[in-house]
Structures are given as C-alpha cells and as structure tokens.
Amino acid sequence: MSDAAIITTNNVNLWYHEKHALQSVSIRVPRNRVTALIGPSGCGKSTLLRCFNRLNDLIDHVKITGEIKLDDENIHAPSTDVVTLRKKVGMVFQKPNPFPKSIYENVAYGPRVHGIRDKTELDRIVEDSLRHAAIWDEVKERLNDSALGLSGGQQQRLCIARTLAVEPEVILMDEPCSALDPIATAKIENLIERLKEDYTVIIVTHNMQQAARVSDYTGFMYLGKLIECGKTGQIFEHPKEELTENYITGRFG
Amino acid sequence: MIFTKKTGSAVTASTGTARLSFLKEQSIKTVFFFTAFFAVIVVTFILLFLLRDGYPIFSQVGILNFLLGPDWAPTAVIPLYGILPLIVGTLLVTLGAMVFAVPLSIGCAIYLSELASPRTKKVLKPAVELLAGIPSVVYGFFGLIVLTNFIRVSFDIPTGETWLAASVLLGIMALPTIISVSEDAISSVPHEYKEGSLAIGATRWQTISRVLVPAALSGIAAAVILGIGRVVGETMAVLMVAGNAAIIPEPIWNILSPLRTLTATLGIEMGEVSVGSEHYSALFGIAVVLLVITLIINLSAVAILRHLKEGRAQGPARKPLISSAAKESLARFGEIIGIAVLLIFLLAAAPWWLAALVLPVAGGWYFGRDRLSQNQIQMIAFGLVGLATVIVLAILVIILQDIVVHGLPALSWEFLTQPPKDLGRAGGIFPAIVGTLYLVLGAIAIALPLGVGAAIYLVEYTREGRITRLIRTGVDLLNGTPSIVFGLFGFAFIVLYLNVGVSLLAGQITLALMVLPTVIRTTEESLKNIPQSLREGSLALGATQWQTISRVVIPPAVPGIVTGAILSIGRAAGETAPIMFTAVVFSSRFLPDSVFEPVMALPYHLFILATNVPGSSTNKYGTALVLLLLVIGFYSVAIIVRTHFQNKARG
Ligand SMILES: Nc1ncnc2c1ncn2[C@@H]1O[C@H](COP(=O)(O)OP(=O)(O)O)[C@@H](O)[C@H]1O
Ligand SMILES: [Mg+2]
Fold it and tell me: Does the structure's ipTM exceed the value 0.95?
C-alpha cells in the first residue's frame, strides 16, 4: 500500500480461552482512508477491530501476542494509557448504543469526561459534531429529549456524533449499518465518505457491495487469518488469493 | 386387530369418563384458586381486625389528635395518646439508618458488580446473604451488648441506648437488602452502555459514575425504598437499643438522645396491656398507622421494580421513570442534604477528633478536585468503594466472631439437653430448641400447601389479568407487613377471636402467614423456569392439565420449592415479634403436650435473657449462638440443595 500507515500490526495472535481467534495478523491501515474488513461471520473481524482500542481488555481470559502500533506507539504495551488511546481511537458499534440521556448529553458526554466544563464551548462541540454526523437538522429542535426516542438510523448517527465530539484520529465501525434500513444505511455511507477528510475509518462489514462502495482499501479475513489486503478495486477485481476470489464471487457462504 | 380393538375401547371409555374428568379438572382448579386468593383474604382480615380493635381510639381521641398529639403517656393518671413522638422517632431512626447504610451499600454494590473478580464475587455474595440471615433479635443482642457500649464510651455519655445506636444497627440490617437489589440493578445495565462510554475514552470510574449508576438509578431507588421498609418494620433490634423514651430529641438533630419507634411501642406495651382497654385500642391504632406506612413504602418499591422489568422486556424506547433533568436536581439535592447532615452530625455529636479529621478532608476535596487528574480521582473513588466493601465485611466478621467466641464456652451437652434453671442463668435451652422446631415445622406444614397451590394457580392456570394482579398485590402487601403486625393480628384474631389461646398452634399459624409470600414467590420462580415446551409436549399427548402439572411440571420444580421452604423455615426460626404474644412463655421445664399449650422459643428466650435477666452472660451468648447456628444451618441446607440441583440440571 502506498499511503502512509497510521495503524500497523505485526504478527498479532489472540486467544479466547483455548480458541485461537486471530492468527498471525499483520496489517497496515493507511491514514485518512477508509479501510474495510470483510469475511464470513466468525472469522475474527470484530476481534481485530477491538484490538485497536483495546476493548478486548473487558473480556476475561483473553491473551494477545504480537505488536499493534498506533503511529509509533505499541498500544498493547503495559505502559499504554488505555484512556488516552481510546480518546484517539473511537468506535461505533453494531447496535446503536446511545446512553439513556438526552441527545445533548450524549454528545457532550465525551468532552465532559475529558474535562471541558464551559457551556458555550460544549454547545459549540455538540452542534459541530451533530452537523458533521449529518443529524443536526433532525434533532436541533429537541436536543433535550431522550436519545432513546430516536429511530435506529438516527441513533447510529448520534453515536457517530458522540464519537466525533472527542476528536479521535481513527474511527472504528463494527457493522454500523447491519441494524438499519436501506435509507438509513445510505445516509451513513455518505457520511463515511465525508469523514475520511479528517479521520481514518476502519469499517467491518459483511456486505460486499458496501465495502466496494465506501472503502479505499479492503482486507479479507478467513478463519482468524488475514488472507489478503489491498486497494479495494484490486481486491474486488483481481484478487491474488483463490479464497478471496471464492468469497467475493459468492462461491461459499 | 388388537390395535383397532384397543383404540375402540379407549374412545368408548373417553365418552363415559369425559364429563367426570372435566369435573375433576374444574374442582382442582377451584381449589388452587382458593389457595391463591388466600393471601388476599389474609390481608383483608389483618386490616379489618386491626381497624376493629383500633377504631375506639380513633373515635375517642380523633384521628388528628392521635397522629399529631405530642405526648404518649398511656399509663398516666390522665392518659395521653398522641403518637407524634413515635412517628418522629420512626422517621429519625430511618433517616439515620439510611445515612449510614446507603453510601456503604452503593459502594459495596459497585464493587460487586464492576470491580470484583468472579472469584471474589463468589465469596462476597454469600457473605452479604449471611448478613441477611442473622435474626433480628441476635442483631439486637449484639447491639445491646457491644454497640451501645461502644457508643457510651466513645461519646462519654451515661448510656449508649440512643438514636445513633438504633440507626447504626438498623442500617446494618438494611445493608443486605440495599446491596443485593442495587447490585442487580447495576449489573443489568446493558453492556453496550459501558462499551460505548469506554470507547470514547472515559475512565472506568467515569463510566461507572456517569453512565452505569445513572442508568441504574431507578433500581437503586427501589433498593433504598426496600431498605427503608425493612427499617421501619423492624421491632426487636430497635427496641433493644433505642432507649425507648417517647420523646422528640432536643434539639431535633441530637443523635445521642434516646427515642422510641412505633414498632418498639407495640413490642414493649402489647404484653402488659389489658385486653379491650383504651390503651389496647391505641396500640392497634399504632399498628394501623405502621401498616399503612409500610404498605405505601413497599408498594412503591414494587411498582418501580415492576416498571423496570417491563421496560427491559419492551426494549429501550420507553420513557425512564425519572427524567434526566429530575435526576440532576435529585443529585444536587442529595449533595446538599449530605453536607447538611454531615455538618449537623459533626457540630452536634461527634467527638472533636472526628471533626478534625473529616472537615479538612471534605474541604480539601471540594477545593482540590479540579486539580486532580482523572486517574487520581479514579484511584480515590475505587479506594472508597473498596473501603465500603471492607467495612461491610468487617461488620459481619465482628458480629459473628463476638457471638461465636463468647457463645462457644456455653455450648455443652447439658446446655443443649436440659431445661433452664434460675430464670435461664443456669441449666440449658432444650425446651426452647424443641419449641422453635415445633413452631417452624408447623408453620411450614401450613404455609407450604397454601403457597405452592397459590403459585401453581398463578403460573399454570391463569393469564395475567385483573385477578392475578389483585392476588399479586395481596402477596406483595403480605410480604411488606411488619412482623410485629402479624403478632398483633395473631393475638387479636387467632388467640382471642378464634379462642385458640396463647399456644403452639397460634404461633404456627401466625408464622405461616408471615412466610407465605416467600413460599409463593420461590415456587413461582421455579415453576416459571420449567420450559414451556415440556407442558406443550405433555398436552399434545392428550394429558389433562392436572396430569401435565402433577407429572411433568412439578417434579423438576421440586428442588426450587424445597429451597424456598427451607429458606422460609430459616426466616421463621429467627422471628420473635410474631410469636411474642401468640405462642411463647419465657420459662418452661416441660415440652408441650398438645398444640394448644404455649412453648418456649429460642429467639424469645434470648430476648428476655438479654433485656430482663441480669448476670446470665454465658447463657445469653450460648442461646444467641445456637439460634444463629440453627438459622444459618437452614440457610446453608437451602443453598446446598439449590446448587446441588443446579449442577445436576447442567449435567
Ligand atoms: N468473548 C468471546 N469469548 C470466546 N470466544 C469469542 C468471544 N468473542 C468472539 N469469540 C469467537 O471468536 C471468533 C471471532 O469472533 P468475531 O471477531 O466476533 O467474528 P466476526 O466479527 O468476524 O463475526 C468467533 O469464532 C467467536 O465465536
Ligand atoms: Mg462481528
């Protein structure tokens, strides 16, 4: 890959108990690009994604070896501060998970926990983030309503706004559209397109059209291994590996 | 050929017996309906009988004069029946108990749900359950001997029997309720909230304090309300340590003043009053007031918890019970109250060294917190949460070790097998042990069929509707009724009205009514755990409903039912208030010949030894230890049964 990398992994292995869920994964994620991870369900896409912000730390009995670097810092080193890391690497989840608070409070939560108290500053961040996430016009009249009253698609964009509000460098998205209808999906895909101006996006999807539409780079995973990774056009048109070709042409499920 | 013949005979037989079997099914269903409706009947009877005996005082003195009269002096030359000091006493004790228990409980609940490793949790949760299993008379005994003494010495006052002692002791007793219900509430906050917050780069503590606890707030509120219900309804423990002067503390925040609660008044005076007198009626008036207060408290907690459960089932779109704006003002209000209470306590009562310690720390926190990093704040917070857990554990250890260390020397073959001598200072407690066993076995023999029948009706025979709601409310009300109220009802209805007399039987029935809700609930739980597919499988083979229930549903539910029964036995064995006026005598050399004679019982024996018989220290501790072992023994058996069958079910 030609673009400069922001995240690189080297020989990463991960075990849940006995299960070897990631096997010698080495990948370079280019900066300010959208990278898609595809592969059949259970192949380790979410697991890999959650390595990038150390969310796997929450699970008991997980063992990780190898090196994962954000810029030049090894993020799995014991000295790494996970809080600072997660501030730099935000995440949007498969199922929208707004907090049971008002819309405003959901977006303001991140800046608040990072020490911003000034009301006008918070107002500005909330508005900017909501605009950036293309949901401002739909919610500006009801910022104090509960976020749980929004539709699924709106909730997901709110969660994106919530992530943007802490100004991360990388945004991880784990099948962000799988719980949404086609119209809401289209809105999110447009949004991803615009996000890469300022952010690096890594998106997991099992929808190959989606990967083809939104991503610049694509990595194909199978049974815990990264089979191949390259420019999206190349992966979809001239895959090097037979496994990739079989998957893309739908020859196995 | 044989095959067709068989089919033919089965069909003929069925036309003949169909009507009969239909009748049988109907009558079975009717029987179950009555067992279920029994709870409603009991609640109605309790209310009616309390009102009947309390009515004269309301009509003579007037409800307002009764409630707001400033003096309680029922034995004065001109008797005064104003229960304001008793109501205020109850409120103050409850307030103090919550100030003590809420921070500890929530800290401990946070530790259990968010910080403890699975292995630590496995040790801590039974410890908290153990705290819930200690009988209230044992708490009272510990409070009387250890806690009041500690307070007397540390504050240098003539007697330690004070509001403070009562609040601390009742606070301890409320801990297990508040801890387990709040822990449940925090643990059931969806995992996604936690991940969402951590993924933004919030620290663990920020996630806990700003997302998890706020999301669990309704559940925590219900926990606190249940804790309040426990405190308001408690009789024996508070009676033994509160000093029982029917006064309003002067000034009102003087926590070193003695005071008296509604329940304590009943416990103290009910035994000495002459039946049918004005005073007697006034005590029933108090019971009515007490019942109304506790019913409101418990029903509101139940309503909150039920709302939560339904909300969870229907997904997150429902409006939260407490809006976020209300939550914020609630938090601010709580902060102010907290500071005020702390200041009052420090100014009014605390020894100077405590003030010298607390004020700088509080001040330092208030002005310095902006300068701390999030990591430092997290460390402090986790430290405090851990400290709360350690304090809860330390309380348990202190109580247990005090009773075990002092009680062990009293245990001997003679102590366990001989009747008491010299007012219990010497001799043994054999009749009390046997009496307690008779009481609880009789109680469960009555409560089990009724309770299981009610649960079967609720789970197997009806859909949720108006009738089940009525029955459930009845069970909830019964569950929230203070044990002393059962005692009064047992006395008025069973002992006097039914003319059973103070006897084993009257005690067994009273205890049975008290544990009925526990039996119903545990049975309901275990019936609900039986998969629907089993029932459908059986019905699809043409089995009748009763055949399905009796052969397919009940057998796998038996372990759960047995567990509930043993838990109820444990609970009943430790109760004093319900049997105090219905079943017991203090000293008896003999075992009862029939159920119409009174018996000795361990909790009552301990109560009298502790409060009325000076100089029987060894035997007091011995009795307390035996009672504790008996109750804990029942609970352990219940837990063993539960885990045994759980493991078996898993294969
Ligand atoms: N917490 C866990 N404990 C044990 N195994 C897990 C856990 N999470 C995921 N796995 C296993 O790891 C493999 C990869 O899972 P995941 O990364 O979620 O796959 P994907 O997101 O590609 O569908 C799967 O086989 C899954 O069963
Ligand atoms: Mg996944």
Answer: no
Cα A156 from Cα A145, distance rounded (Å)? 16
Given a contact cutoff of 8 angstroms between Cβ atoms, the answer to whether B202 and A113 are in contact is yes
Tokens of B416: 């366990």
Distance (Å, whole) CA A117 – CA A126: 13
What is the C-alpha separation between B213 and B176, in angstroms, rounded? 18
Task: Write down the H helix ranges in B234-277.
Answer: 236-241, 262-269
C-alpha pair distances (Å), B265 with each of A56, B52, B58, B383, B546: 58, 19, 18, 42, 49
Q: Can you tell me the distance from the alpha carbon of A183 to that of A166, in angstroms, rounded to the nearest whole number?
A: 27
Q: How far apart are the first and last CA of chain A?
A: 28
Place of tokens 């055949």: B547
Contacts of B324 in chain A (CB under 8 A): 100-102, 105, 146
B499 Rama class: left (phi>0) / alpha (psi -120 to 50) / beta = left
DSSP state for residue B272 in the 8-state scheme: T
Q: What are the structure tokens assigned to B579, written together?
A: 């049997």
Q: Are strands B426-427 and B420-421 parallel, antiparallel or unpaired?
A: antiparallel
Please give the residue of chain A at the shortest CA–CA distance from B209. A113
Residue among A53, A101, A144 whose CB faces B199 most closely = A53
Q: Cα B61 vs. chain centroid, distance in angstroms?
A: 33
DSSP A146: B
DSSP for B303-335 reads HHHHHHHHHHHT-TTSPPSS-HHHHHHHHHHHH
- Distance separating alpha carbons of residues B114 and B102, to the nearest angstrom: 18
- From A146's Cα to the closest Cα of chain B, the distance in A is 8
Give the 3-state secondary structure of residue B80.
Answer: strand
Give the count of beta carbons closer than 10 Å to the beta carbon of residue A28.
Answer: 18
Which residues of chain B fall below pLDDT 50? 1-12, 315-318, 651
Closest ligand 1 atom, residue A44 Cα: 17
pLDDT tens by residue, A201-229: 999 998 889 999 999 999 999 999 999 99
Asked if A36 and A218 count as a contact pair (C-beta separation under 8 A), the reply is yes
Find, among B199, B213, B209, B327, the residue nearest to A162 by Cα: B199
Residues near A191 by Cβ (< 8 Å), separated by ≥ 6? Answer: A133, A134, A157, A160
Q: Which parts of A70-168 fold into alpha helices (H)?
A: 82-88, 103-113, 119-132, 136-139, 152-164
In whole angstroms, give the CA distance from residue B61 to residue A175: 72
User: Against a cut of 0.95, is the pTM above it?
Assistant: no
Name residue A230's beta-bridge partners: A218
